[in-house]
Design goal:
about 150 residues, Peroxisomal Thiolase, Chain A, domain 1, 3-stranded parallel beta sheet, globular, PKS_Beta-ketoAc_synthase_dom, phosphoprotein, fatty acid synthase activity, Ketoacyl_synth_C
């Protein structure tokens, strides 16, 4: 699915509703139920504003309405923690990271993740988990997604 942030408070501030629409569109195009998604590659810039908006959008679509059918927490990963921001190549790098993880049935760790942003704590408590080590995804059927 392709989308853009539309109006947001600044150039570097993501638009949560726009990201929700992109995730829903990708799921619809794949004919996939949100609860079937085991892992999600985040844009993950590590910013105090962007990360909570991005995780909040993913939570709203992939977790909020699927908790009854979700078998395990949604595992979050972010390649930027390993390489830094690759600027115009960020979407391609994130997609490649997601595809490689799906092929290996695992989520790669978010390097240097020591403390969860307080704005993320309530969202990630049980329903979502940042990969702190390489983590096996819970099912043999794995889907990958990237949010460039």
């Amino acid at each position: 699915a392709v989308n853009q942030d539309g109006r947001s408070s600044s150039l570097t501030a993501p638009n949560g509703p726009s990201q929700q629409r992109a995730i829903r569109s990708a799921l619809r195009a794949a004919g996939m139920d949100p609860s079937a998604l085991d892992g999600l590659e985040m844009h993950g810039t590590g910013t105090s504003l962007g990360d909570p908006i991005e995780v909040g959008a993913a939570h709203a679509v992939l977790v909020e309405h699927t908790q009854a059918t979700r078998l395990a927490p949604l595992i979050l990963s972010a390649m930027k923690s390993c390489m830094g921001h690759t600027e115009p190549a960020a979407g391609a790098v994130g997609l490649l990271h997601a595809v490689l993880g799906a092929g290996a049935h695992s989520a790669r760790p978010i390097v240097h993740l020591n403390t969860i942003n307080p704005h993320l704590a309530s969202l990630t408590r049980k329903a979502m988990s940042g990969a702190t080590d390489a983590m096996a995804l819970p099912r043999q059927h794995v889907a990958a997604a990237a949010t460039p």
